[in-house]
Amino acid sequence: MKKILIAVMVAVMMVLSSGCAPKGYTSADVGAVMITYEGEVISTRTVNIQDSGEGTILGAIMGAVVGHQIGGGSGRDVATAAGAIIGGMVGNNLNRGVGQELVIKLENGQKISTLIKIDPKNPFWFKPGDRVRVYVKRDRVVKIEPLFLRD
Q1: 145 shares its domain with 125
Q2: How do residues 42-62 score in pLDDT, each as one tens digit?
Q3: In-domain check, residue 147
Q4: Helix or strand run (H / E) with residue 79
Q5: The total number of structural domains that make up the chain
Q6: How far is CA 141 from CA 10, 89, 137, 144, in A?
Q7: Helices 73-94 and 2-17 sit at what angle, rounded to 10 degrees?
Q8: Cα–Cα distance measured from residue 144 to residue 142, given in angstroms and rounded to the nearest whole number
Q9: pLDDT tens, 98-137?
Q10: Closest by alpha carbon to 141, among 59, 61, 43, 34?
Q11: Max Cα-Cα span within the chain
């Protein structure tokens, strides 16, 4: 039973601290209104994304919970502390990455700037001149997709 609990906690920690958005829709998206704009990328810049602190904190909490399941007495205290430290480091690293800052001129003439995280497993870099569709929900860009596929 203890091993199952530890495996579940590790899995939850990995999902919650990854900082990755789901690739599709969730039940919270049903009925939500997204406004779409079309435009052209006018400039790009590669940036490093640092952890805002959420990944570190969540990782430390989950690591402490998992570590607390190990041993007893002072050994349990050491395992809890070690779990918190290791979980915090894992959460911090998972919430970092490489991003691309985009400046987009929308068809209505307005210019917007936003940041997207690049998926290292499937990198796609926008270039100036790319035509894009921008999805906005509650004043946040939730997705940018190219309007064409380039070679």
Answers
A1: yes
A2: 999 988 887 666 666 777 777
A3: yes
A4: helix 73-94
A5: 2
A6: 31, 29, 6, 8
A7: 30
A8: 7
A9: 889 999 999 999 999 999 888 878 778 899 999 999 999 8
A10: 34
A11: 66
